[in-house]
Specification:
By secondary structure, the protein is an all-alpha fold. It has helices spanning 2-12, 14-21, 23-29, 36-68, 71-93, 102-121, 127-135, 141-153, 156-180, 186-212, 216-219. The chain is built from eleven helices and no strands. It is globular and about 55 Å long. The relative contact order is 0.25.
């Protein structure tokens, strides 16, 4: 169920991803007719590579926490923590909670901003992969949410697969915006953000309930 929800979350969050990061594939596609589709595939491959890395790292961290303490208690604590993060991410996307990621976003964007501009204008075949890799490191509510879920799984492999499933769900929309070359209207972006935020809150509640041991059997 975790992988299926992660993939569905990627599909549901596709409009949010296009609105927030659609400028990158559009910039790669601008002024190019040959090799356009191949560059977009490489860009998305770079994104997926980073997401898998984040998932594996998150799952490994969760596994270390479980190893240090009683297995059942550690898993419950991780589930509660992951549920809390999912809920907070959803509430922040809805505008009900503010300031949770502003500082992180400013720091990361300031560090990677200049590098991203240089990569976008490069004609090197490796440029799309590098852009995808760095793009996935930019602050993103959805990545935060599913990385938190990966931590609660306490397994590098399961964490990596969860983030891969999430990333795969966003690929069709990210390819589409580059090939069609259109950007989302502001109203559609706002509506997508609200739907995704509500899903994050709902999923966070389910994961947190697993921490209490009330839904573990049903959810799995």
């Amino acid at each position: 169920m975790t992988y299926a929800f992660a993939f569905a979350g990627g599909l549901a969050g596709s409009l949010h991803c296009v609105a927030m990061c659609g400028a990158f594939p559009l910039a790669l596609a601008r002024g190019r007719t040959q090799g356009r589709f191949g560059r977009q595939l490489l860009y998305n491959l770079g994104r997926l590579n980073t997401l898998v890395f984040v998932g594996a790292l998150s799952g490994a961290f969760g596994a270390v926490v479980v190893e240090w303490g009683p297995l059942e208690a550690a898993k419950r604590v991780l589930a509660l923590a992951a549920g809390a993060v999912l809920i907070l991410v959803g509430l922040e996307m809805l505008g009900l909670v503010r300031g949770l990621t502003v500082r992180v976003a400013a720091a990361v964007q300031g560090t990677l901003g200049r590098s991203l501009r240089g990569v976008i204008t490069s004609s090197s075949p490796a440029a799309p992969i590098a852009l995808g890799v760095m793009n996935a490191f930019l602050p993103c509510h959805l990545i935060y949410a599913f990385a938190a879920r990966a931590v609660s799984l306490a397994s590098p492999i399961e964490g990596a697969l969860t983030m891969l499933a999430f990333g795969a769900g966003t690929v069709p929309a990210m390819l589409g915006v580059a090939l069609v070359g259109e950007r989302l209207p502001a109203r559609l972006r706002l509506g997508a953000d609200r739907v995704v935020a509500l899903l994050m809150v709902l999923y966070g509640i389910v994961v947190a309930l697993q921490g209490f041991g009330t839904t573990a059997g049903h959810v799995h």
